[in-house]
Design brief:
The complex is a heterotrimer of chains A (about 725), B (about 220) and C (about 70). Chain A has 23 helices and 28 strands. By secondary structure, chain A is of the alpha+beta class. Chain A has a domain of about 160 residues: Phosphoribosyl-aminoimidazole Synthetase, Chain A, domain 2. In chain A, the strands form five sheets. Chain A has a seven-stranded mixed sheet. A seven-stranded mixed sheet of chain A has the order 23-25-22-26-24-27-28, with helices on both faces. In chain A, strands 1-2-3-6-4-5 form a six-stranded mixed sheet. The N terminus of chain A is likely disordered. In chain B, the strands form two sheets. A nine-stranded mixed sheet of chain B has the order 2-1-3-4-11-10-9-6-7, with helices on both faces. Helices cover about 30% and strands about 30% of the residues of chain C. Chain C is elongated, with a radius of gyration of 15 Å. The mean pLDDT of chain C is about 95. Classes of the chains: A alpha+beta (about 725), B alpha/beta (about 220), C alpha+beta (about 70). Chains A and B meet through helix 8 and helix 9 of A and helix 1 and strand 6 of B.
């Protein structure tokens, strides 16, 4: 179990541990760590697993809510949706692997988040993806990443039979070197099938389910290998994990079957840091000891060393704890589903994590050292003055007519139709989808009692770059606004924080401000944060990415039949602008086309009036008083009106309130709605649905077919 | 009327087919490893990615234990409906003519398409009129129907082409816009579009229900009578 | 013994994968490439190579749309 001390001191640095962290390990263990222990610690104490720079900050997020069944800390957050059912959901990043190999990176990102959801006992019923790349107009690499990431998401989601019902894609120069791939999954479970990950019951058996274990993802830890793999053996340490949705489909059905038969004490998925992380989390939550025998782990490669087995990130594996008298039943269910199931250890009294290789102990350290003693660092934020990000190239001069400007916006990659992407995903498998992408601002999925849940994912890095606190608040407001447009009330939120290097004071400031903004907006709207993910160090020599908090929100509506739509529905309907709307050009899509850097203060938000507006839209969509509802976001009122015309296939004649900037933005607080004149009377009526053109008085008149052509052109050639 | 929906490892639209068929009659799942059709009046081989589409879509599923019973059921005149992956399985098994190739675009395509009923008679389209249009979604990567020209001529002359994509709606390059074909005795039918996803106006069109209703009418008139 | 089965799409059937590869090569500076077809390779250890053609006909290939050659 021991190794020479001097070589370990060098090795800890190669494994990414600082001298200070290594000293902490020596102090906590009271001795130098063995090879296997060092490998395990280097991963558990990494930023990715340990959340060293964010854990303290995340405590700021509000997590209590009337409907919350499981909050942060479990594999997924869970909310009650009535009739004895619960919805589990979470969003996770797979940014760095996707930059290396976008097809498999995006595919395994989907695979990983699916496992987090069925690990709590929920059947995955929907996936959404939030993607960010560099400018496809100028960067071949970004076109390649876009095309391959979309193909990878489609490949995994379609093959496993989970519909991809929504998502967002943004293109900004700041993501050129560091693309973002965030995958969100929702699952459905009867309350009685929900399960936590805490291992319990000394004497219970730890069983490994799923795919064989290979050398995937070992990466940096390979410095610990006692035998050098020769040149040309790089293939034996794949840096790219290959996903297998067929195996995961069988694994999913198997796990749900095991849970339906109440055969498991606890369940955990294997993700980052593989067996080490899964087993230590289970032991830590349960306050027990766990003993694993790597000699029993079924391997894909011969001659794997114990440390490799403990940190392998091979996909499509789960870990469960089973009472000894139920192990035979578990193996029987797994055999029916053609899933490999292998007892590899036991739960015991105490607090130790012991790894054996056959009869030999190769690691033995307290669980608390792995999980709780991971150092947490305070951020040292320093507010940033001036332009952190370059201005984009100008595509417009500002001399264009409003009509030309609107067409340029509709054609631009951030606003063009996403249909060419959504056509590569199956949005309807499982027969729950009531609103497909492009039909409404949120996806809507029917529940057995004819109510429905709605889900949206939103974020805008450009605006957060201008003003991290207000930009993050806008992401929350916008998600809630999207739900209101289909008639849904928010139940809970998940978030992925994508930022640069937190050790740099200006990035630390972005992170602190953004988390504060998320917290404030959640408190204002009464939406609890039930879980999330952090991805840091998204930075290139040229600088960090835009600070990009991505928010996923789930809500409920009482009647699936009354779910809202975004397109104008009937000739003669009145059109109104609802909500406290004070738009500005700062951080807007137009400012980007004009070549302006993301700098400036975003508009202030009146939370009370925003709440009232969301409720006004929500209730009138539910009652049918509003025939359509669409929130005003990127591109401002002019783009929102154009989208309502194109999706609805109907024109409109509109007159904007005095001096309202048609392209100014203030997301999450204003809506374009249509309906009978009497129903819209309490609001600011701005016009009427009809004809085959969008006419904004004094500004522009464009045929709907022209708007459609501009919008449809955008992405098609790149995916 | 009792429908049996086959479930292979990797089947995805099996439950969807079960729910759709349940609107029209009784419906049960038939496990791939069991040699038991549970006395059903019609078998549905559903969509999805049976066996991961490994080797060729449907190539491994066609040898599943339950398929020997399905083949015997078909030989004896029982109704067999193959949807998407199911169509691929039935072609691989030789119960239907032709084969499904990768979409010309080489990409997965999801789209609501319009189909033309070529023949409004028989167990599957008997409830439709020739020339009628049905709005039904497609979602597949390997849906391009192929058979040698001589075979296609024969199928068309024999009235075995039951559904065609309306001009402009062919999503995959299928020859002669063929969306669905039946066997010579007409009791086996395969189509790439998903009728089980067009049974509820709330989520799209309800045109797909016509196919399940046609099957029920046929069974009631010819089998249960 | 070790055998390889090379499977290729039957001549005369549209092969969009082959076409896509054929279009992509000149863009990378490789000229003078034509008649590209994309197929599949299956490698296996067999005790009885005499049974390989039957394996190909029954499972490894679809004779309606594919041709194959066996290498040993």
């Amino acid at each position: 179990m021991s190794s020479s001390t001097s070589s370990l001191e060098e090795r800890h640095r190669q494994l990414g541990l600082t001298d200070g962290e290594y000293a902490r390990i020596l102090e906590r263990l009271g001795r130098p760590p063995g090879d296997v222990e060092l490998a395990m610690l280097s991963l558990m104490w990494s930023e990715h697993c340990g959340y060293k720079h964010s854990r303290r900050l995340l405590r700021r997020l509000p997590k209590d809510g009337a409907h919350v069944l499981m909050g942060p800390g479990e594999n997924a957050g869970v909310v009650d949706v009535g009739s004895g059912l619960a919805v589990a959901f979470k969003v996770e990043s797979h940014n760095h692997p996707s930059a290396v190999e976008p097809f498999q990176g995006a595919a395994t990102g989907v695979g990983g988040i699916l496992r987090d959801v069925f690990a709590v006992g929920a059947r995955p019923i929907a996936v959404l993806d939030s993607l960010r790349f560099g400018d496809p107009g100028v960067s071949e690499r970004s076109r390649y990443l876009l095309e391959q990431a979309v193909a990878g998401i489609g490949h995994y989601g379609n093959s496993i039979g989970v519909p991809t019902v929504g998502g967002e894609i943004y293109f900004e120069g700041s993501y050129e070197q560091n693309c973002l791939v965030n995958a969100m999954c929702l699952g459905l479970a009867p309350h009685t099938r929900l399960i936590r990950s805490a291992a319990a019951g000394p004497g219970n058996v730890v069983v490994l389910l799923g795919a064989l274990t290979g050398r995937d993802g070992i990466g940096g830890a390979s410095v610990l290998a006692s035998a050098e793999l020769g040149e040309g053996d790089e293939a034996k340490r794949p840096s790219v994990q290959i996903g297998d949705p067929f195996t995961e489909k069988k694994l999913l059905e198997c796990c749900l079957d095991l849970l339906d038969h109440e055969l498991l004490v606890s369940l955990q998925d294997l993700g980052a840091a593989g067996l080490t992380s899964a087993a230590s989390e289970m032991a830590s939550k349960g306050g027990v000891s766990v003993h694993l025998d790597v000699g029993r782990v079924p391997l894909r490669e011969p001659g794997m060393e114990p440390f490799e087995i403990m940190v392998s990130e091979s996909q499509e594996r789960m870990l469960c704890v089973v009472e000894p008298e139920r192990v035979a039943d578990v193996l029987g269910v797994c055999e029916r589903w053609e899933i490999l199931a292998t007892p590899i250890g036991i739960v015991a009294e105490g607090d130790g994590f012991q790894v054996l290789d056959g009869g030999l102990v190769v690691a033995d350290l307290p669980v608390s050292v792995l999980v709780d003693d991971c150092p947490l660092y305070d951020l040292e934020p320093v507010p940033f003055d001036g332009a952190l990000y370059e201005a984009p190239s100008a595509l417009l001069t500002g001399d264009e007519s409003p009509a030309e400007t609107l067409l340029a916006l509709l054609r631009s990659p951030n606003l063009a139709s996403r249909l060419p992407v959504f056509e590569q995903y199956d949005p309807i498998v499982q027969s729950r989808t009531i609103r497909r992408p492009d039909e409404a601002d949120a996806a809507v999925l029917m529940l057995p009692d004819s109510s429905a849940i709605a889900v949206s994912i939103d974020g805008n890095g450009r605006r957060v770059a201008c003003d991290p606190r207000r930009g993050a608040m806008e992401a929350v407001y916008e998600c809630s606004a999207n739900l209101a447009c289909v008639g849904a009330e928010p139940l809970g939120l998940t978030n992925c924080l994508n930022f640069g290097n937190p050790e740099k004071p200006h990035v630390a400031w972005q992170l602190v401000e953004a988390v504060e903004g998320l917290a404030l907006a959640c408190e204002q709207l009464g939406v609890p944060v039930v879980g999330g993910n952090v991805s840091l160090y998204n930075e290139a020599p040229s600088g960090p990415i835009f600070p990009t908090p991505v928010v996923g929100m789930v809500g409920k509506l009482p009647s699936a039949a009354r779910a809202g739509r975004l397109g104008f529905a009937f000739e003669g309907d009145a059109i109104a602008l609802v909500g406290p709307f004070e738009p500005s050009a700062v951080g807007s899509e137009l400012s980007k086309l004009l070549g302006r850097a993301p700098v400036g203060e975003l508009p202030a938000a009146d939370a009370a009036r925003i709440r009232i507006a969301h409720q006004a839209v929500r209730s009138r969509v539910r009652s049918g008083a509003f025939h359509s509802a669409h929130d005003v976001a990127e591109g401002g009122v002019a783009v929102a009106l154009a989208e309502c015309c194109v999706i609805g296939g109907l024109g409109a004649s509109v007159r904007l309130p005095n001096a309202l900037d048609p392209f100014g933005e203030a997301p999450g607080r204003a809506f374009i709605v249509s309906g009978p004149r009497e129903a819209l009377a309490p609001f600011v009526v701005i016009g009427e649905v009809g004809g085959d053109a969008l006419a904004i008085e004094g500004l522009l008149e464009l045929p709907v077919s022209g708007l459609r052509d501009a919008r449809d052109g955008g992405l098609r050639e790149w995916v | 009327m009792k429908f049996g929906i086959v479930r292979f490892p990797g089947s995805c639209d099996d439950i969807d087919a079960l729910q759709a068929a349940s609107r029209v009659g009784e419906a049960v799942l038939l496990w791939h490893a069991d040699h038991d059709l549970q006395g059903v009046d019609a078998v549905i081989v559903p969509g999805g990615f049976s066996y991961g589409d490994y080797l060729r879509a449907g190539a491994i599923a066609r040898f599943a234990p339950v398929m020997s019973e399905v083949e015997e059921f078909a030989r004896e005149g029982g109704l067999v409906l193959g949807i998407c992956n199911g169509f691929q399985v039935l072609c691989e098994a030789g119960l239907l003519p032709g084969a499904l190739l990768p979409n010309v675009s080489l990409k997965f395509v999801f789209r609501q398409v319009e189909l033309e009923v070529v023949r409004g008679a028989g167990p599957f389209t008997g409830g439709c009129e020739a020339g009628e249009r049905l709005s039904i979604p497609v979602k597949h990567t390997t849906g391009r129907y192929y058979a040698p020209d001589v075979e296609l001529d024969r199928l068309e002359a024999a009235g075995q082409v039951l559904l065609r994509y309306v001009p402009g709606h062919n999503p995959n390059g299928s020859l002669r816009d063929i969306a669905g074909v039946c066997s010579e005795p007409r009791n086996v039918f395969g189509l790439m579009p998903h009728p089980e996803h067009a049974v509820d106006p709330l989520s799209g069109s309800a045109d797909g229900l016509r196919i399940f209703e046609s099957m029920r009418s046929h069974v009631e008139q010819h089998v249960l009578a | 013994m070790r055998a390889r089965v090379l499977v290729r799409p039957k001549a005369g059937i549209l092969d969009p994968q082959g076409q896509a590869v054929e279009r992509a090569l000149p863009a990378l500076g490789f000229d003078g490439v034509s008649n590209v077809h994309v197929g599949r390779l299956i490698e296996l250890d067999v005790d009885d190579p005499e049974r390989l053609p039957e394996m190909c006909e029954r499972l490894l290939t679809n004779p309606l749309i594919e041709d194959y050659t066996i290498e040993q």
